């Protein structure tokens, strides 16, 4: 009997010990999790950097496009139907190359007829001539009005389409941000955000369904423009034909002058390039009648510049002659040298892009830069720079000229995973856009530089904190 009781007491003791051990394990796990959360929070509050040997610079950014420093307009002396167009935008041309051929059939017929019947006197009908001229003027005016109206319809359709796509993109961006937020949140927060995500998803589906309608509207407007253009061209040509037919029935003793004028007009129907370069703009299409004398624009590709905008806050910080570093997506990481060649220190009231700032022109230093006219480019106008200096992140610098400057350095404590906050006085030199030179102080390359939290002072001299480098993975 006594042995049975001892056996029971022994079992009870084992059970008690097991419960205590399990409780201790649970406490350790709970404490560890809380400690981890605390370390994560502290680390998130402690941005950091390193003391590095860097090339520092202070610069002004300019975004613009590549264009030519030399531009010429190719014009036509007569407004006749384009029967052949020999170039397209982007083609290289030499001086004298034929850009397009205008219809000279009727002019040539009139020239031939006038040559054969030279000296024959014909009575003029001034009243009829005035009516025909008025009809031509009205036809041209109606053509301009019709095309302007059709173009406005295209612009409105494109604006509506772009707004729809931007609205859809904005909804997708907000949805993705919300999903990212939910993925990194706890279950309760996810449940709270789910209705908002569902609503955004429903909105995106509706917007997606509407996009083809806007695309169709643009196509319809473009087709309407072409129809209006064809009809207006026919009306103008008919009025012009009537005037031309009437013109040479008028009695004119200066037949030789008419023949000379016709010969010049016939020759002018062959429109040629006036300079070497690349065609960057065409204002006519095959089969159309030019709206005005401007046929094309030719730009010299041997001398390229970048034209961009600089905002009001930066315009007084730059000067002509400053060196520039140019990059484009087409040339990857290649840095192309340039120089500020021109600054327009006035904004014209007629400049539609005046809100973007003041226009700056940057000449491209390399004639063989591989850049093409129309490419987007980003340029850094280098105001000043200093190479190979010890530097720390700009935001890590504390203090001022009166009280002196200092930085917080994270030094090893001997305990793995922690560092001690040590405040070290320094002297600073060159101040770049993101880093500041350290000229004096107990700072060396590779030191862990702690950046004081912007919203609240959380770093103190002698404080022990988790090593931000070791905790980086926990906060991502």
**Gap between N and C termini:** 65 Å
Q: According to CATH, what is the topology of the domain at 123-250?
A: Helix Hairpins
Please provide the ordered H/E string of secondary-structure elements. Answer: HEEEEEEHHHHEEEEHEEEEEEEEEEH
Shape: elongated
The gyration radius over C-alpha positions equals: 39 Å
The count of strands amounts to: 20
What about the largest sheet? 6 strands, antiparallel, barrel
- Helix-strand makeup class: alpha+beta
pLDDT averaged over residues: 81
Low-confidence stretches: 1-12, 26-46
> How much β-strand is present in the residues?
25-35%
Helical residue percent?
Answer: 40-55%
Order of strands, main sheet, comes to 2-10-13-12-11-14
- What is the count of helical runs? 7
CATH class of the domain at 123-250: Mainly Alpha
């Amino acid at each position: 009997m006594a042995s049975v009781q001892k056996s029971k007491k022994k079992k009870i003791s084992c059970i008690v010990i097991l419960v205590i051990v399990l409780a201790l394990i649970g406490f350790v796990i709970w404490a560890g999790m809380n400690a981890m959360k605390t370390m994560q929070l502290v680390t998130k509050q402690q941005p950091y950097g390193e003391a590095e040997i860097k090339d520092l610079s202070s610069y002004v950014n300019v975004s613009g496009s590549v264009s030519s420093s030399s531009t010429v307009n190719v014009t036509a002396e007569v407004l006749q139907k384009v029967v052949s167009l020999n170039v397209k935008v982007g083609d290289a041309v030499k001086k004298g190359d034929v850009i397009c051929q205008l219809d000279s059939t009727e002019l040539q017929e009139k020239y031939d007829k006038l040559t054969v019947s030279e000296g024959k006197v014909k009575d003029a009908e001034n009243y009829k001539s005035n009516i025909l001229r008025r009809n031509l003027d009205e036809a041209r005016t109606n053509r301009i009005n019709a095309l302007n109206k059709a173009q406005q319809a295209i612009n409105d359709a494109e604006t509506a389409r772009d707004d729809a796509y931007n609205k859809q993109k904005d909804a997708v961006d907000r949805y993705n941000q919300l999903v990212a937020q939910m993925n990194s949140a706890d279950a309760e927060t996810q449940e709270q955000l789910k209705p908002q995500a569902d609503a955004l998803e429903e909105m995106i589906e509706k917007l997606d369904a509407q996009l083809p309608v806007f695309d169709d509207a643009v196509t319809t407007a473009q087709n309407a423009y072409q129809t209006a253009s064809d009809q207006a061209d026919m009306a103008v040509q008919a009025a012009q034909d009537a005037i031309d037919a009437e013109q040479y029935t008028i009695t004119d003793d200066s037949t030789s002058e008419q023949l000379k004028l016709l010969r010049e007009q016939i020759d002018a129907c062959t429109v040629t390039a006036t300079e070497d370069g690349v065609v960057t703009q065409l204002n006519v299409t095959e089969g159309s009648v030019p709206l005005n004398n401007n046929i094309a624009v030719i730009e010299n590709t041997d001398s390229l510049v970048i034209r961009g905008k600089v905002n009001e806050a930066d315009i007084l910080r730059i000067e002509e002659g400053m060196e520039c570093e140019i990059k484009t997506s087409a040339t990857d990481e290649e840095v192309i040298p340039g120089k500020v060649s021109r600054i327009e220190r006035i904004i014209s009231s007629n400049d539609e892009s005046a809100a973007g700032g003041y226009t700056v022109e940057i000449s491209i230093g390399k004639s063989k830069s591989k850049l093409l006219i129309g490419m987007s480019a980003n340029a850094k106008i280098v105001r000043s720079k200093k190479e190979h200096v010890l530097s720390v992140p700009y935001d890590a610098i504390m203090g001022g000229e009166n009280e002196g400057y200092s930085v917080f350095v994270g030094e090893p404590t001997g305990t793995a995973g922690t560092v001690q906050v040590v405040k070290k006085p320094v002297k600073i030199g060159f101040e770049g856009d993101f880093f500041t030179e350290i000229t004096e102080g107990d700072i060396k390359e590779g030191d862990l530089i702690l950046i004081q939290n912007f919203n609240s002072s959380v770093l103190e001299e002698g404080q022990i904190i988790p090593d931000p480098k070791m905790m980086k993975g926990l906060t991502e």
